[in-house]
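Note to self: user wants both folds in one dump. Writing first protein now.
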Amino acid sequence: MDEEAGPTMVGDEHSDPHLMSILGATKRSTLGNNFCEYYVNDAPRVVLDKLESLGYRVVSMTGVGQTLVWCLHRE
């Protein structure tokens, strides 16, 4: 069975720097974009496991082209 691999986009330039640090994310800008995004080299399932351990839970998920998008909530 094939698993999705990283890198995984985990936030934008306005994301909580402390949370991005916990996830091990690095901020980068793609040529042509005037904004930055945070990425990790982990597969999405690893990121979701880390976020679950921090109290987040998946609320919804959808596919947009070749991209998967998860919406999470922390209580």
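First done. Writing the second protein, which came from a different request thread.
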Amino acid sequence: MNQDRHFGKVAVLMGGRSAEREISLQSGTAVLDALRRRGVNAHSFDPSEQPMEVLLREGFNRAHIALHGRFGEDGTVQGALELMGLPYTGSGVLASALAMDKWRTKLLWQAAGINTPRHVLLTEQSDFEAVAEELGLPLIIKPSREGSTIGLSKITSVKDLPAAWLLAARHDTLVLAEQFIEGMELTAAILGDTALPLVRIQVKGGLYDYEAKYLSDRTQYFCPSGLSAAEEHAIQIQALQAHRILGCEGWGRVDVMLDESGEPYLLETNTSPGMTSHSLVPMAARAAGISFEELVLRILDLAHVG
């Protein structure tokens, strides 16, 4: 089948203005190359370098969003594409905005009975000692509306809390202090109505931060995860439920911690996950027998129509 006839002219949105620009360029290039190998009339488009209305002027029929973080994963680009009537990959405006905001994600999940680490919002006026006493140490301090663990710290002492807050506050006015869950780090990739095989992440040093995600060769990934079929299935069901509670669709990734007693805690949902050589969704897809090219085509086929 000539995919070009099916999808028309496709813009792969990459780059953008967020702190994750470089990763987005890598994801976008991988997506673009895969689409072209399958005969799709695909072109790169960086919304930080040209206005969005160019998409209409140049006759694009569909957008594959490979943007990460703000101005790409937070509902803003999705809203612009809906105004133009262009179908786009991933979740809609509201779901994208909610998933980007880890605090509001948690509020919805808690209301729906989804297990997520305890947390409080931090400000400069917060009683840091009281926060540490309430949540316990260690703590994770992070911006509510950033991705790729940018601005994230793990602290083991109250005296480190002000500096960790300041680092996170450079990236966002909303800063979360979150209970640290000791245990196994997992991620559940979502494709359509299916949760793909879980990926287990093992990090040297114990913190899956920006360096561990994108730069280190010491981070290990296991897919199959090593969990029993029953354990894996239960987490996949929860991940799908959490994804749907936010109104997410198309594809995405739900990050999970499994504590030492086997209790899963859902951390966040990513509506435009990475598609680089280190990325987790392609890894899970491979374990399900889906090649990278087929994965990209399936995501494009699930494009959101506003």
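Dump finished. Worth passing along: The longest helix spans residues 21-37.
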